[in-house]
Amino acid sequence: xxxxxxxERLIEAFARFPGVGRRTAERLAFHVLRDPEARQLxxxxxxxxxxxxxxxxxxxxxxxxxxxxxxxxxRDGTRIMVVEEPRDVEAVERSGAFHGRYHVLxxxxxxxxxxxxxxxxxDGLVRRVRRGGFEEVILGTDPDAEGEATAxxxxxxxxxxxxxxxxxxxxxxxxxxxxxxxLHRGVIExxxxxxxxxx
Length: 199
Hints:
Layout (H helix, E strand, L loop, with lengths): L4 H11 L6 H13 L6 H11 L1 E2 L6 E2 L5 H4 L7 E5 L2 H10 L5 E4 L17 H9 L5 E4 L5 H13 L8 E4 L15 H9 L2 E2 L2
Parallel strand pairs: 3-4, 3-5, 5-6
Antiparallel strand pairs: 1-2, 6-7
């Protein structure tokens, strides 16, 4: 017996999320039907979609443009950390180990999932660096195959962007296959302190 059409549409909507298969989508849909509090999901999604935007400088998600981090004049304007996702900015900020600027790529190179060079915000990063003021670009992409490919792509894109520009990569002390958003504060601090300069 098939589910009613509105429920089937809800299941299909949940199944479109990354990592959510049909079974998990069904569980989520039935949870929404059972729990009145879960029905706040729809207005929360609508509010997030209408009241957040991408910062025109760093491409992070924010409620204002420029975002609070870009507007903060106390931050070190000579260093910029390049990360894959907004959640990576949140993870590094939680650590308190970095006080420079950020640039969010909005993904990593992953052709298997349809993410290619044109989907990333590398052109915006190159423009920021060419405007001057940055002495170091820290590549903070995840220590996995996609992150490594992305870091190489960013490094090649920055070639010639600044004569005295130093490019570093977070230290290899990061656990292989992990994501920045799940790392402990001390791990992020150690990775920043032990970063290796690539040029």
